[in-house]
Model the fold of this input.
Amino acid sequence: MCAPTDAPSPATAAFWNAYPEMASEDGNRRRAEAAGYEVLDTYRLPDEDWAAYYDPIADRLRAYDTSDTDVAAAVAAEWVELDLYRDHGDEYGYTGYVLRLTD
Done:
């Protein structure tokens, strides 16, 4: 998980604050280089993959009976992440790094 920018919006930064090791793509590149690797290529998970993940979750969340307060709270908590991706999905994602040891 990473951010394509060193300056995400406050909403994105607050949500991902629970993951202090999350860095920008450039930050991850610097970490790899500092560890003795050359970054040969990167691959960012495309939006279609996020849709394939989040769309079925959203469908299931809409189907829950939220008349129970505990269920309603759990469903609301899940919507936070889905709404964050809808509003700020361009500020974070999964990036794969192809590395080669430099020594």
